[in-house]
Amino acid sequence: MKILVPIKQVVTLDEDFEFTPDNRDVDHDFHIYDLNEWDDYSLEEALLIKESNDSPIEIIVCTVGNEYADESLRKCLAKGADRAIRVWSNELKNTDSIGIARIIAHIARREEPQLILTGVQSSDFAHSTTGVATAGILGWPYAAVVNRFEPDHDFTKASILRELEGGLEEAMNIDLPAVITIQVGINKPRYASLRGIKQAQSIPIEEATPDSLGMIDSEIGESGSASIIKKMFIPEKLSTAIIIEGTPAQQASKLAKIINDFKGV
Amino acid sequence: MSGTLIIAEHRQGELCQATLETITSAIKSHTPDIRVVVIGKQIEPFIEAVRIEGILEVIAIRTSSNDFDPDLYAVTLTMLINSYHPELILLPHTVNTIGYAAAVAADQRLGFATDVFDFSISNGIVTAIRSGYGQKVNVELGFPENRPVCLTLRPNIWKPLQANKAGIVIEIHPPVYSARCRHETYLEPKSSGDIDIPGAAFILSIGRGVADEKNVEEFLELADSLGATLGCSRPIADNGWLPKARQVGQSGKTASNCKLYIAMGISGSVQHLAGMKHVENIVAINTDREASIFNYARYGIVADMFEIAEELRNQFPE
Asked: Which candidate from A172, A185, A230 shows the least CB-CB separation from B142?
């Protein structure tokens, strides 16, 4: 049995950054890369399922991105994923999260996993789209924002909890195979061991293309996407906070005054 | 292709506030022919609540249950897209919408964007604005031509208008479908004991900046000596460093009665802001001058939270 774990290598920006000349992105020189926090939890959930099952389970991580994304795939391999697939070609520039879902759906058709676990959202763009969109394309059941996942012994159904607004949770029962989007806090992601990191270096990362996955033109890149970035710009400052300057002692004394004013002291 | 479709959302007998905000956004943006869809069993109160001046009609779809079912909502939306051919579909950006909208968007090849906080439609061309790169930038989005565009809208942006029996109500049969993800029950949040974030007038809140579980205690003590209730952002509760009852934000508590909110080491995610950005006096303390919390604060202190905490303790001994 296989579990597919699609991951994203997310971007945080340098403190000072510049847009590309066409203003449609931030210049990649100012990108700092890391594995998406939510995907750390979905990988951990897959590892926990594998460890608590008697029958062998293969965990496949996949991502869409250029060779920079190998770093995040290696991190997953070091933690215990069995195999990694990275899909890229230049046609995939300007692919949005729905377009990414079309690629993951092709990987799923080829690999036929019993379960797809992915993060609720990415920390950089927070679309909350890819997992549920993948299910829509595959015609699979799906559940979003899951903070407990308990499959039946024969893996045909699972009991889940969804985290709703205001701390409320919803217990549901879902047919498998399914796509589950995992909320942070569902488990405690492990750190990779030194041995794991070493071993991961020797596992080859499969490099796939839309072509090798059998995708057709209308599914690829902008054609397969549901939105196009026209431009990016710096948000207008909503309120201009009064910045309290000075040494920490001076700043704290002003803060103390604010607190005392509030208390009417 | 014309008209606007809005799917109402409700839970445990309450209409979701973000639904009213979504309808209001459509009215204020002058989107064409607004139809609001209400799905469920006991839906009379929801039908009346969405009849805001400016809507064309309410589409009532009576089903056997009031609970959210992703397949029911997805199949119903698909059915309505194919019978009404709307140019715009507006949904509140909530946990339930996250739980089905993208499946329909991908399958029906809609234009699609989530967590949108501003949009316009002119001559059938939709433009939407959302955040990117951890809210450091805004992104203006366009959509493929000749396709309906579905936007999920960020809550707490549009101030809801009141219903006044506007529009007409029509009934439509629910679609035939098989439920693959079935509601069982709701689990209420664990009792919060004497921790009362919604009732607190003065909250001192800590975030990732606290760095380690062993550092939490000093902020409990500090809050105590200031006479504040200690709150926290999500990662602190997720790590189990503080109980969930102290978590401020979308999946936690709302600081409903707060008059002074001091955010220490909190960058200000959309989810955290949802629970506190309405507070009149927000003081943000963060080492990152660009942290989005400063956009919502009345006062900002660019400094290490531990240094400020230490100096504050000197100001408020005992």
From this structure: A230
